[in-house]
Fold each of these.
Amino acid sequence: MALAIILQKINLESARIQIFCGSSGGKALQFGKVVFDHLKASRDEEIVLHNMGDVDPEDALTSLTSTDASVAIFVLSTYTGGQPPESAKQFFNWIEDMANDFR
């Protein structure tokens, strides 16, 4: 149900979509693959699935801003105390650093 609502909000005709998954037990990655497969079956435009532990956050997020029609979908499991899973820690640390960088 939630997946259908999310997919209705995405302009499938022109959006460049990237899905970022962070998981400790694999459930978030499995769900990310479901979203990826559904979107891939219904569109011709580029769609990319990332494991957050395998990408450089700066490169990945900068590439999203290079076009007007970009969509990022984040699929994450929560970990102890609401912290990101181990595979997403570097990604989240970078985001926090950039949020506090006042250059």
Amino acid sequence: MMVAAKADMEKQALEMKALMKDPVDVKKIEAKIDEIAMMKAGMQKKCLVHRLAVRALLTPEQKTKFDEMGCGGMMGEKGCMMGGMKEHGKKMNHGKNQKAEEEEKEEKKEEKK
């Protein structure tokens, strides 16, 4: 889904570039700026929903670390929207919860016996 959004943003950028050539129509350029801003806001909202969904899966300890990492994408920096979640996943043992980790440790101990 984000791939499609990125493609749309690239398309919008090309359309904006074309609008900047003579003869310049300020009204069309302003409308394109508004359209691009709406797309960016939509992506940031999706990022927020995703971030909150991920956070809801975490243990209290993981939530503390997750919150410390922040999300630059929410402020227009590289972050959720631009791949920052990949780093979050690496740091957070993404996809694992504390109970699953403890069970894995127990299984390894049992295998050694």
